[in-house]
Amino acid sequence: MERKKSERQDARTATNYAQIRRTIIGRVKHEDIQAPTDGRKGVSRPAGPSSVVFARAALSADGLLKFVTEVGKTYPQICHFRLMREHAYILTDPTFIVEVFANSGRHTMKGRALQGAKAFLGNGLLTSNGDAHLHNRRLIQPAFHRDRVAGYAQQMAALTVAHEMTWKDGMEINMSKEMSELTLLIVGRTLFNSDLSGDAREFGEALVHVTQSMNARLLMSPRVVAIDLHIRTPRRRRLLENLSRLDQTVQNMIDEHRALGDVGDVLSMLVDSSDGQDALSDEQIRDEAMTFVLAGHETTSTTLGWLWVLLAQNPQQAAWLHEELDTVLGGRSPGLEDLPNLPRTQAVLHETIRLYPAGWIQGRRLLADIEVGEWTLPRGAMVFASPWLMHRSERWWSGAEQFRPQRWITLEGAFDEDAPKVPRGVWFPFGWGNRKCIGETFATTEALLIIATMAQHWSPQLVDEQAPAPLSGVVLRTKDGIKMVLHKREPLAELKQGVGL
Ligand code: HEM
């Protein structure tokens, strides 16, 4: 009898998995624009690294970052290489980058990695194309308007203070995990009025696993991702379990919002739109919500992780930041109104994003031929531009590899994003045009409030002498997180020692 019951249970779970698998494969195959391929013969293509060099780089964890850096040194304008069976280009001349990414946006679509990522993200803002993207972008844009983000600031600061209360002097922490939990909590509360880190441990774990799976499949073509999902392995089973956990949590949030009515968050707005002409289906709402969870927390949390590493490695710069925080805030929690008075904090964040741009590579597939300089980039080709490469090039930045937040400060002591005076096409951490990060204001407000709160009281130090190396994934990550030990700051003692001021 017992056995029959467990067999029935197994059969039910198997049907569930079959359903989830079908849904996911359906997502990968969904194309709002059919992707053209570049099979053109006899076209003249610029020189570039061999496919063996690329394949070798793709096989090692930090290989792609090194590959891109090497490309920047060897090919000062453009290079061509074979990405598996496709023709691909990396642009290293800023005017070429502007031509493809800014001026020709409507002749491009997202590339193969994001098509594969639809397995997880569905067809949300990050992955969709053409009219479907434009429609939803217009619908969602107001939720990320500066005024709306201002309304989230108080919660961002309060959640940071609450998180900080769990920290103790001398405690050893994994800073990546700390920042990931905090930013997930903030995204959940502000955008969905839900506690994603209470329901959460399970949700958080599922999210980490799904993100790792996305990293592992980054270079697979969408077809290979679909085939991979067909093959029965324990790995696939775990992925399906975690995806269905994420789907279920998001579906519960949608149901709750339908029952509650408008609670003034992003999810209310999406659910509300279902009554109007522009109606979004539950599936579309899920896709957008999942995109915000994934795009909105991993990016900011890894950026903050790198910021703590850079402060620990550069005590003089940390002291320069501390001086501002002590003077302007004097120990109290910051609010939105304080941010314009914290130019050094803004400079430290920008310098971190310069050295560790979460969106380290951006790719497009061309929907039409595009001319750059003497070259014709054919319709169907994949084209890449890398903030990692352009933000770290000595051609544009003096002391490019060094952490020098002062480059963002004017002679009058103000923060100015144009202060480094680099040409257009060199600095693009949040992307371009109508594909620009919708969460930029949200992310910078959140990160500034977190640093201003925490760096006032804490000066975390690296446990290992060697800082963790960046690895390329969906964002710039570390292998096992960032081990740090917490030191409570004593502002007066620092002043007496005159640390770096
Ligand atoms: C430091 C933090 C962040 C960085 C560096 C970053 C970077 C980027 C970049 C480079 C893109 C463009 C990708 C491309 O063109 O292929 C992008 C798009 C996007 N980001 Fe962010 N992001 C951050 C935070 C956030 C946050 C907090 C959210 C949401 C709460 C968010 C949501 C999105 C969405 C939805 C898109 C797609 C926009 C579209 O195509 O219409 N991001 N982000």
UniProtKB/TrEMBL annotation:
Keywords tagged on the record: Heme, Iron, Metal-binding, Monooxygenase, Oxidoreductase
Residues forming coiled coils: none
MF annotations from Gene Ontology: heme binding; iron ion binding; monooxygenase activity; oxidoreductase activity, acting on paired donors, with incorporation or reduction of molecular oxygen
Signal peptide span: none
TM spans (from-to): none
Family affiliation: Belongs to the cytochrome P450 family.
Identification of the protein by name: Unannotated protein
